[in-house]
Design brief:
Chain lengths: 583, 583
């Protein structure tokens, strides 16, 4: 089949050229004896004109037929500014019908109004929409750039197994029954974590993999049962070395896909400071509106509510929205209060408004003049500013104001338009978190994360305040990756297991072969796992993960196209030595 | 950690330089007050000398300890030509022990004599061997080149699901029980075949993926339960277009990894001719020794054995080995006969030797002088030539001589040394093969392969002689890839299903959603799947697939390192709604 160029690439400068095109019929109109067909391929659309000498050949042609057209490019009398090829059309001189098509069950256009479930069932038709094709190409480009950058930096891509060992706690593992060893199972890996650490022990020094990962969880809108991670691990490094590689990677990806030059180094904030300032470990830095701990203004307050909170190790936190005083009525503020009560168990939301030099609002009357003056100074309040205040347990106060910060930024339009990308390293995450369910301290990241050297002696005495060498990279409010410097010392590894309540026997049962590996000369190492779908979503400007996955499942983990998972033949189960439990 | 260069990169021209190195202790020797340590990293080995001023710091250092060394490069008095860095050594001025190591349970050296099972158990140590590291880097390079070449050719890499739909005949599928939909299963794909065809239907036009595939079969030496395929599919193409892309890919890969310029276009042989000439569809063309059908010489033979074979639609085939007459004694030839009797059910092996102008051998006495003269002429026999002859059913005669061709090429050293790469396209494979087990014709490739247009009318009347548009690429006797032009016409697809004995109902049950997709404007398309491991094995010069896989299983499908597959917790099975069958 002859083809001189892509349909969407033709421009006015091509006028007069003879072309051979191939594509799908996107739209067909008759105008007197003329037939106009928009012909679509991966590069875009072009209008073809069939005059009366040839119109008969396309009289039966309908949407989604495939045509091969020879013709001449000519300027259009009435240019269509909405089409990239809108200044020209192709005058058909010959046409061949390559294949016919039934009427498609979905509307194949960027602004389709077909329900998502129908589009998922006919995904192969949905993929003909230009917006999805562009997302697939974007995802491909991101991977190409990532690979070329990492290759240039001395990283080797190594494929690790997908048929792997199940870990005893792996309720989240997808299992694969073994046919050869009936009664035994493989598990699909949640990440290549253990393998990549073994590759460091194996002396590969710089590894990466764009790796498929699997997590059997009840899906959220931005999750899929399988997802892809740009997985990186390096030996003989500390945080700065890892950050430098990731920053280089992001520079190249954002430059290559969006033409955006990112700042040379990304901001870094220790986790504790981040939580205080933004009430979240993934703040959106495209706007300010930091949380202020104004507890110090109320050391001697007579306002009983604040008094009680402060006496019970709570704090008084505040956040300011400039010029927003008039935009939230009493009712609107009540809704905000309800939002943090139901979402974060906050007791109440207080607020102050500055209007014509006067402070009003729910607590204006109960604060002393000195306190009010102090708040105005501390929060740098001017006319029309709104300050929201939560006095509560520190975690509740911060989380509540952090969520209000995000909500009001949207409502007030504080998020700048366009390609603004604010990266942020959040460092020094806590080593442990307390599991109410298990009634013990568990690893916040994973138990192979190194604690900070200066906190090692607190492992048993004060686990709550042990910081780790774990870090996240946050972009515009989304967690793009997490990673850590790992433990490379067997003694320290055993101590950390002990700190999370594992005996050596239990540790061996869970991670035996991996622990063994540590004995034979393990290099200091660390790395990251970057969520590929999340990264492409940010670049594509979509919040729907299915927009960046070729064949996604629904939120309830169904493949509507192939109708999977499905029932299989009993013989298949017999071979595997398993049966379906009776209800 | 400071590091100025890789250990294996230092050369005589670096003498006098101050360097900081990191690596594992490969070997340690004491010589009087001096200590010599070979320090290994991914780039190679270098010898470090610790003189009496510093030797004490490394007195406890043993194999596989990790050291950080600062020192000065100096020329060696006694250069070691076996080491790439053998002309220099590094005089240590400072040393720090980064980590200690227990004595490793395997010998970490290229010429290790440790049993493979032990090496697999300690794969993370085995990977420290330079030969394995080089193979991993080679595999990475092959993938990098493949991706960059395909990207430049307009291909888009698209990830297709690993959690996919099980096909009803899929006894070879790995199954994954669904937790959300108890009693239903996902299957791991044997290849992305259906997805990539759907992507063509979806208008992606040029797709590739370096894709993980899964096949649950009883393993052979060159198979693994999971393997990787460079998977390619293109729309609006015929064979020549696919071949051009694959040839470009091979040019770039062999140039980029071996520095070898391959011939511009690879030889093509139709399957039927290939089977006649070489007795196999994957001949090694690094040597000649083609099979000759010499039946025509015996049209009127009085030699009863040949007479009977020819009367029963058999043929007399012969193959010549120059100068080999003296190399096979009567006993050696008996072994060859036993080899084809047991392996191919051949009735007998006849032979002729030319010695001092005289023809001798097992059938020299029973052939007429005219027949002997004809054989000498046909086979172009000269002194010391050996001709092996098999008279049998064509398939048996060809396969027997094809196998002898391979065996004698090895025994006689006919395979040229060095980087000789002989590619061959085998085309026009049969569309169907008869399944004795199912007592019907089945698809030889897969049922989506297009039959040759001129053979379509034989689909029902003469299925045995329908050629398909399937092709293989063979390299040095190995099948590197197979592929085909696919059916894109729904009517033809239905006919092919009918020809293999499927009713439309059965076809729908097996491939329903895929058949539906064909209705909405399917482009002509075709592609290939290239076995990545096989390609890297050829480039690495190994016949052991485990040499090119980071974490392989044994031939009996066990991961000896992590001890997988393994028994899982009953609670995990309960969640999945399955149980292990009682024996």
């Amino acid at each position: 089949m002859e083809r001189t160029c892509g349909n969407g690439t033709l421009r006015l400068s091509d006028a007069g050229k003879q072309v051979s095109l191939i594509g799908w019929v996107a739209r067909r109109r008759n105008l007197g004896s003329l037939v106009f067909i928009d012909l679509r391929d991966r590069s875009g659309l072009v209008q073809i004109v069939f005059d009366e000498t040839i119109a008969d050949k396309v009289k039966d042609v309908r949407s989604e037929y495939i045509l091969e057209v020879k013709g001449t490019v000519q300027a259009r009398k009435d240019a269509n500014p909405k089409m990239e090829t809108g200044e020209i059309e192709v005058h058909a001189e010959d046409v061949k019908i390559i294949n016919s098509a039934m009427t498609p069950p979905i509307t194949i256009a960027d602004d389709t109004d077909t329900l998502e479930d129908t589009r998922l069932k006919y995904r192969y038709l949905d993929l003909r929409r230009s917006v999805l094709q562009k997302n697939m190409i974007l995802r491909h480009k991101v991977c190409m750039i990532a690979r070329n950058t990492l290759d240039a930096e001395g990283f080797v891509e190594i494929e690790t197994p997908i048929l792997a060992r199940s870990t005893p706690e792996g309720a989240r593992d997808y299992l694969v029954p073994s046919r050869i060893y009936n009664g035994k199972f493989w598990a699909l890996p949640q990440s290549p974590q253990i393998y990549k650490q073994l590759l460091m022990i194996g002396g590969m020094e710089r590894y990466f993999q764009i790796a498929r990962c699997f997590r059997d969880e009840d899906l959220r809108a931005d999750r899929q049962p399988e997802f892809t991670q740009i997985d990186i691990e390096m030996s003989f490094v500390e945080e700065n070395d890892v950050f430098a590689v990731v920053e280089k990677l992001m520079h190249d990806i954002f430059k290559g896909t969006k033409g955006v030059e990112l700042e040379e180094h990304f901001v870094r904030i220790p986790w504790a400071e981040c939580m205080k300032k933004y009430g979240t470990d993934k703040p959106d830095l495209r706007y300010g509106n930091e949380i202020h701990d104004i507890s110090g203004l109320f050391t001697n307050t007579e306002f009983q509510v604040f008094r009680t909170v402060l006496d019970n190790k709570g704090e008084v936190d505040a956040i300011k929205f400039e010029g927003a005083a008039g935009k939230y009525s009493r009712k609107g503020l009540d809704q905000l209060q309800e939002f943090i009560r139901s979402g974060f168990k906050a007791k109440a939301l207080a607020y102050l408004k500055m209007e014509k030099g006067e402070l009003s609002g729910s607590i204006a009357k109960v604060l002393s003049e000195a306190e009010k003056a102090a708040v105005i100074a501390e929060m740098d309040m001017h006319d029309d500013d709104l300050v929201l205040v939560v006095a509560d347990k520190p975690s509740v106060a911060r989380a509540s104001l952090g969520a209000l910060r995000v909500r009001l930024a949207r409502e007030l339009g504080l998020i700048p338009e366009g390609n603004i990308y604010k990266f942020l390293w959040v460092t020094d995450f806590p080593m442990f978190e307390y599991s109410e369910e298990d009634e013990r301290w568990v690893a916040a990241h994973h138990p192979f994360t190194a604690p900070k050297a200066e906190d090692v002696d607190k492992l048993f005495t004060d686990p709550e305040h042990v910081s780790s060498r774990a870090y996240d990279l946050v972009l515009n409010g989304y967690e793009l990756l997490s990673g850590s410097i790992r433990i490379h010392d067997q003694d320290l590894q055993e101590k950390v297991f002990e700190a999370i309540g594992l005996t050596m026997d239990q540790a061996r049962e869970k991670f035996g072969f991996f622990l063994d590996a540590f004995k034979y000369g393990t290099p200091p190492h660390g790395g990251v796992g970057i969520g590929l779908e999340r990264l492409v979503m940010v670049l594509a400007g979509t919040e729907n993960i299915r927009d960046v996955v070729a064949f996604p499942t629904t939120n309830s983990s169904l493949d509507l196209m192939s109708d999977a998972p499905n029932v299989v033949d009993k013989r298949q189960l017999d071979i595997l030595g398993i049966e379906i439990s009776k209800k």
